[in-house]
Design a protein that fits this description.
about 0% strand; 2 helices; mainly alpha; about 60 residues; globular
Length: about 60
């Protein structure tokens, strides 16, 4: 069973900044590969939410 995914605005902004950095400092293939890897990883976690270790964060924004 796959979970519904919601990406926070700050996460979208971070991904956009990283994408642009790759466009400027590498090339379009690297930038597109980065976005593809991020989206595949998000999908994988949605499909297997127990994947990995549970983490506890002290900073509320990161929780």
């Amino acid at each position: 069973m796959s979970m519904e995914v919601s990406i926070a605005l700050r996460a979208e902004q971070d991904m956009t900044l990283q994408y642009r950095w790759y466009l400027e400092n590498a090339d379009v293939d690297v930038a597109e590969g980065y976005l593809l890897a991020v989206h595949e990883t998000i999908q994988r976690i949605a499909e297997l939410p127990s994947l990995g270790r549970r983490r506890r964060f002290r900073v509320p924004d990161v929780q």
